[in-house]
Design a protein that fits this description.
This protein is α/β, with parallel strands linked by helices. It has 15 helices and 17 strands. This is Alcohol dehydrogenase catalytic domain-containing protein.
Length: 396
């Protein structure tokens, strides 16, 4: 082995595919005996990666991007007891130790030890210094705790276009729905028809929702969901969201709401081209019924360096919290604890209880095409780009 082609961040709107050394089981000068090296099979471009690409989330130049990682273990440390070379695994995007108070209480998304600056770690962000997986090889610490091993190698490779989404967006969308207390018979509104919104739509259906409505301005993305049998509302057209929901349900409210957009949201109708970062969250608050619940897997940050608006630049948004209080809404925020859900969702995939490909519109490209894929995704493509660093997959 001599190369490790990787997608790295240079500056806003500028990425590079560069050849780096293959990672060792080391981090900041320490040998990690609890770590493994994976040869990456699939690594997806996420909407969260787009925040970095567009200069809306700071990372140091040279950072290897990517946090949606599935791979084959090629090297293990001596403290790794339950995994072996050759295992195919899903890597949760949360970097977590499994030993701190939060990890021990099923909150690996807010691990206390993997980031000196904040109680959370993730690959490919400036969240603890962990390099990402849009590369041929990747270091994964705390492997026994973190990794989801697929039970059968051939089956895993055959179902990779479904299983590749267990590292982030499928558990993230599912977490949004669980947080929103979706149950059999629920009516659900999901803000955002990007990949996480689509994952949330699939999850709501898996949980038994009677009607799932997705709102977005991107007609191509909405068309993918409509084809999959979901209700959609086009937010680029005139008219209130409540009226559009009323036209579907007969009432202007839903039982449960999910914000799968986050802090780069835009307005509606004549304001569809205007960035109004509180819009998606306010929409969900507005149309969720009194006593209802909201899941917020969409990212919100303490500061948005790329915003042209002074308050959002400092992480401050104009929210309708008074109405939230009056309606006694329950809201759950934060990163998804991926490993809390990934085994069950793997089983749902393998036993055909959830059809990821029906709404993901997947396009597999070689790692060398990754930089161009970032731009295409940022321009509004309905595609979910899966990078193929080592040729395990068939490019599409």
């Amino acid at each position: 082995m001599s190369t490790n082609l990787s997608i790295t961040y240079t500056a806003p709107w500028k990425l590079e595919a560069v050849d780096l050394p293959i990672p060792k089981r080391e981090f900041r000068g320490k040998i990690l005996e609890h770590a493994v090296i994976v040869k990456v099979i699939a690594t997806n471009i996420c909407g969260s990666d787009q925040h970095i690409y567009r200069g809306r989330f700071d990372v140091p130049a040279g950072t290897v991007l990517g946090h949606e990682i599935t791979g084959e273990i090629i090297e293990i440390g001596r403290d790794v007891l339950h995994l072996a070379v050759g295992d195919i695994v899903s890597v949760p995007f949360n970097v977590s130790c499994g030993r701190c108070r939060n990890c021990k209480t099923q909150h690996p998304e807010v691990c206390e030890t993997v980031n000196d600056q904040a109680p959370l770690g993730a690959y490919g962000f400036d969240l603890g210094g962990w390099q990402g997986g849009q590369s041929q090889y990747c270091l994964v610490p705390y492997a026994d705790f973190a990794l989801l091993k697929f039970p059968d190698r051939d089956q895993a490779l055959d179902r990779m276009m479904d299983l590749a989404f267990l590292s982030d967006i499928l558990p993230t969308g599912y977490h949004g729905c669980v947080s929103a207390k979706v149950k059999p018979g629920s009516t659900v509104y999901i803000a955002g028809a990007g990949p996480v919104g689509r994952a949330a739509a699939m999850s709501a259906r898996l949980l038994g929702a009677s009607c799932v409505i997705i709102g977005d301005q991107n007609k191509e993305r909405l068309a993918v969901l409509k084809k999959g049998g979901y209700q959609t509302v086009d937010l680029s057209t005139s008219g209130s969201l409540k009226d559009k929901v009323d036209a579907i349900l007969g009432v202007p409210e839903v039982d449960c709401g999910v914000d799968a957009v986050g802090y780069e949201a835009h307005g509606h109708g004549e304001n569809a081209d205007t960035e109004l970062p509180e819009t998606a969250l306010n929409d969900v608050m507005d149309i969720t019924r009194a006593g209802g619940s909201i899941g917020i897997p969409g990212i919100y940050v303490g500061g948005d360096p790329g915003s042209k608006l002074p308050r959002p630049k400092k992480g401050t948004l104009d929210l309708i919290l008074g109405q939230v209080w009056v309606k006694s809404l329950t809201m759950t925020t934060g990163m998804a604890p991926v490993m809390n859900y990934s085994y069950d969702l793997m089983q749902a995939i393998l036993w055909n209880r959830i059809d990821v490909q029906s709404v993901m519109d997947i396009k597999v490209v070689p790692l060398t095409a990754g930089v161009d894929a970032y731009k295409t995704f940022s321009d509004g493509s309905p595609k979910k780009f899966v990078l193929n660093p080592n040729g395990y997959l068939k490019n599409s």
